[in-house]
């Protein structure tokens, strides 16, 4: 099916491309199970905060077709599904802490029956005062975790002594993942307490752990399998666990297979989002626009439980510098507890919220000093020999910023565009153009160092066909395709000889989430080490076989090569044996054709107390330039042009990397522009379906769209010189965001700082324009 | 009693499929085509992403008699369509596109291009995207980017960023539009014609649900009279949500979507008469040159999938404050014709709509015709819609302006109607009064904007807040003024 064979010049298409376009790709909701399968339904709270005074499940339980109705009292194990901190009940106990929190579970023969049963449940609530925003949480000192802080230099002194100072507040909004496939899981009970879990999860090992915990069984009774997800973006890193735990409880209680596939609105109401932030900043700078000191306080809305909030906040602190060297920098961060669903991982994982702050600071400095913002960015970039240590003490090695800057300036014709934009704005009153260049430097690795490990299992069968299994999950990002590419190159055999099978906890145990953009870095390396083990076992045999029937010197194991489905002696290339024959021989010689691989990222560490260390294995870089047209009367904008230059090292698959860059960029644009989330005064989500929650559509992409991978920039000590590419491109959306701001600013000839935030919806744009027009008049 | 039947017939997988609802307990007459297909072993490619017409994951294509001796291929959202709506049509799903010969798969050109151009990542939106591309393939050759985008506004993809999908469309639709469906067309055509020749109404009387589907106006009004408590549906893009989202079982439905007599557009020198069953897409095609102000609004009405089934009658009869055609139709003093057995009446649209989702329709009437008076030569009419996302979104504010100025450039007549600013589409009477007789100048307009800002008390909701709506409303007046000055016109 896959065409490119081992030709390195042809980039491999997605391994599932053909099954996708023919509708054959199966997702959890498409699985044929048997007619005993029950539908699972989650009954959740309408209250953001309330005491559960009493409930009665009898009527629901007695309704024909209902097989189980469970409350917190029916959980055999722990009532807990928090991934790191155990502060998240599986089912509400005495109190509900957000609208959307699970209280009861129903298993019934079909949807309709389950819905009827839900209406028969009687519950008495006593509403309590909810905390619905960060401001109120701060007032009430409703915290999650301690304050985090990273500091370098003398911030206070340098702020005071700087020639110029600015201060302000930036609000960045929540974002719904809007994976096309909502959260789903099928659990099939087996013999004894065995539980087979088919889950749409980015983290099978954790799903396994949580299912084991709620059922009070050891992990070896639980197998979790993930074939593919219909999108995840971080939303299934921890919150896929919830659906699995609920389905497992119902399957255990009924001894039948149970499927939970959340309805879209329920998914949006029940699950966490990207963290909202309110960030306060003060910056000091000189007349050239060099930032001398920066002081930032980040406040994250964690929602009702910890989930991954502390790691997300930490990443925001790490990325407060983005691509800029700030000699004196202090960043503090606090996560706040509110009565909303627990916010969770989302592409960028706090990075975007941090980066948005410093990009705002730079943008403001440029406006105040009347300097070109791109030049000002360049002036503040990390350098290569000096001024290249981050606020947490890691050196910015192999800094690609200067290279990328030159490239994107010339690709986009930035300075010519700038002139054109100004000329246009002089001539037009109601339509304004805006232009912005934004960089990204993104740290790659889980910042919790021990998570940077991965495993793989390689099995070669007697016919020479290979199964590769690894701990990473496929959510559309093309991980399996990259792994296929790696395995094919390492084994020297065609793609169609290799199958990357569904991720399964019984094949590769104790894995980390497929997250932090690290999927191919970690799992690719693990696969490589596994393959190397088997190859090493085969070398002596191969040398022996290649020496047979040949006169002269015997072939030696260290000269054996694997390529083009052949195994040969690189010294005597005419001595060859097919891979398949070698494997067949190996079997008869009783050589093991199965091996595990393991990898851990070397040399990374971070001291959370001191705020110092080397948390990242390396950095990924990129830049984008966008030009937009804003209709100042409707608040509509159109992206006229976007240029992106992105560093993916020696790309493992150019097609897949470009797909990640474009898709990430558009998702970033969505967060920055149209994806608006509102709650009512009771804490109920208003935008709970695509009717009112607007992710970008086909007409929201740039009219002209140029994406280029940085050439000749191999990475060091990663799989085949590649770089992670999942998250960093999300930040390219900032070029659109700030181009819109640039257009607004031009209305007042850049004399007034526009009110701005994320998302810059047309409401925000119109109000900002209105304010500037008022200021011009007065 | 007129003869009736209780089942439907359609083509799926090249075979006639019949479902008799009186004898079938797996499917109700209001089972959606999406749920029906997903219950079959071979059609799980069609996906549910939202159950409300907003994502396109459920897109399928129907081929139907086009009334001109051929077949028309239309994409639609199968999550919003009840089974009886596909009676007499060919249902085409993603599984039908490729040809399998043993182990070999021959992909359809749109599939081939999607693979080549990397149009899928997670794959969940892909079957829907492929079907939209297939409909485009069958209807356009070398389509412009605008047409490609228009046929994809109804498909959300969270992974790819769309560029590769546009590229796939460009490549695939550069071909001649022929495929294995072209080869079978004659046979399909005659099968569909056979099914459609029988004009006996479908009448399903099940214990929980009554579903009536007439094919003629005469039958429609007969059934309406017999079942005055029935809920009329046409495209069902509004009604279906009661079931798919609110989970209400609709007890009694009168489906007018197969009454061809209600699908017409006739024009004379002063009027355009549109049958209530005319789809928004057909209306759009008609209006582009004949009534551009309506085309402006229809271009950003839902998505192609929605416009292919949604009707003008449905838009008017739902009497929603954000019904996008209403401001213009009200400004044009549109009349509606209602039919009942033995009588008919015509009344102004402004009298037909009586309140928030309320009309003055009688229990035995159906809305048959919408009669639009054409604007006069010396008038300027413009329509506007502002929503959070430009496409496939409901208006935050919509508006229509109609201006006649005299030779001194004074306002001789002005009508301004807004949608989204109150419980129904409403005249900005204070602003109109102020403008009347004034010079049509920027100064006047700026003063009028102040009045307009305060004229309504709109609500804050998930789409926009009160303040934004006020700003949008007044800005649209300025926008209109600018357009009357024929200044440079960039579209955003
Ligand atoms: C995703 C999506 C996007 C949408 N986008 C838009 C948009 O951009 N702008 C907009 O204005 N609307 C939009 N709508 C709403 C809806 O599509 C329109 O109002 C559409 O015109 C309704 O037509 P229909 O034929 O589908 O109506 P139906 O759902 O069939 O009926 C709607 C109402 O009209 C009544 N009715 C229909 N026909 C008759 C008749 N002949 N006689 C008497 N009563 C009748 C029905 O009883 C019902 O109350 C959207 C809907 C969806 C789901
Ligand atoms: S399921 Fe989303 S449009 Fe039908
Ligand atoms: S490919 Fe994942 S949503 Fe389109």
**Overall pLDDT of chain A, averaged?**
95
Largest binding interface between chains:
A-B, 82 and 80 residues
CATH-wise, what's the superfamily of the largest domain in chain B? Beta-grasp domain
Low-confidence stretches of chain A: 1-10
Strands across the major sheet of chain B, in which order? 2-1-5-3-4
Query: How many individual domains of chain A?
Result: 3
Largest sheet of chain A: 8 strands, mixed
CATH architecture group name of the largest domain in chain A: 2-Layer Sandwich
Q: CATH class of the largest domain in chain A, anyone?
A: Alpha Beta
> So what's the oligomer here?
heterodimer
Strand content of chain A: 15-25%
Determine the fraction of residues in helical runs of chain A and give it as a percent range: 25-40%
Which small-molecule ligands are present, each listed once? flavin-adenine dinucleotide, FE2/S2 (inorganic) cluster
How many helices of chain B? 17
Number of strands of chain A: 29
Reported by name, the CATH topology of the largest domain in chain A is: Aldehyde Oxidoreductase, domain 4
What's the CATH architecture of the largest domain in chain B? Roll
Give the strand line-up of the largest sheet of chain A.
3-5-1-12-9-10-11-20
Structural class assignment of chain B: alpha+beta
Topology, number of strands of chain B = 22
Describe this protein with a few key phrases.
heterodimer, A: 778 residues, alpha+beta, Aldehyde Oxidoreductase, domain 3, Aldehyde Oxidoreductase, domain 4, 3 domains, B: 492 residues, Ubiquitin-like (UB roll), DNA polymerase, domain 1, Uridine Diphospho-n-acetylenolpyruvylglucosamine Reductase, domain 3, 4 domains, disordered C terminus, binds flavin-adenine dinucleotide
